Please model this.
Amino acid sequence: MKTLIWAIIKCIMIISTAVAGIVVYSVKIEPNRLVVNEFDFELVSGGEDSIRIVQFSDVHLGPNYSLKQLEKLVHKINKLRPDIITFTGDLMDIPSQFDDRSKISEILSKLNNTYGNYAVWGNHDYGGGGVRFYEDIMTASGFEILKNENGIIELENGKALNVVGVDDAMLGNPDIQMAFAGINSHLPTLLLLHEPDLVEEVAYDKVDLILAGHSHGGQVVLPGIGPLYTPPLAQKYEKGLYALEVGKHLYVNSGIGTTKIAIRFGNPPEISVFDVFL
Model:
């Protein structure tokens, strides 16, 4: 009997230790284990010239992601030597409660690139008082916010690329038709969204590469199961690369910070890098 009791006690101790280890890892280690995922894309058949597009998303500045961490993020992005930097929404977690808003643009303005910074609105950029701050902060940081708009990025080699941004689909007013109005259909096109499932409303023949965020990759991803939860408008396209049609791709970035619960498991924060051939 004593042997059985001791075996049960040891089993409980092992399980308790394992659970405690997982909790510590999920709270203290993985949320800080920033990874870089790199991809090559041929937007023009036989294209020989490449540009580097770097995407980051869902920073959620707040009690669980500090300005010091943002500085490290900027340094890491700069080391990747981007030609274009894209941000796909959700800068602060609860903007009205983030007291250091005035310091954000000083940090983000240190991002270096060749052809510019582009951003779209996320639901947290509208909610929590964010609508009062986001545009001013991003503009002061050197970002062009594309709100149902498009533009052309002209490269040094004489080639060009369309860039399109659609407004947030949860708290904003997305207008696909307006976003693509007057676009040069002869150029390859980069589309920025916050919510990835919004891609269902986009005619794929209008776009080559789509970058989105919002899902956080689920934050917690279990082996053999996948993300435990993804938010509305990130339930069909949860994380990573999707081939929509031949030559048409969507990438859902797992984000930088966390929201609601400050944990990540099986799903570290990421910067995504796209070497695009034109």
In short: The chain has six helices and 14 strands. The first strand starts at residue 35 and ends at 42.
